[in-house]
Amino acid sequence: MSINRYAKRRDETERPIVDGLRQLGYQVRQQDVPDLAVRHPSWPDGKVMLIEVDGITKNRKRGLAQLGFIRAWRIPVVKTLDAAVAALGGKIS
What we know:
about 90 residues; about 30% helix
């Protein structure tokens, strides 16, 4: 097993989405693929939703394995907090 010696560069759009979800009461864990694992205390035990944050530019693209995983698992790809909340089945009041 190799050790990643460098911190993963996060998408610029990810921080506002993470902060916004946390303010709305969601528990958010940042990870590599997909970017976020999210749950809400009101959900049943064990329910976690995965979200990919789209901050990819022409200089940084997703790899084929990452694209395949996102498509196969039907993971929502979001660019905004509103889109993230909608993907989680909620709405911002």
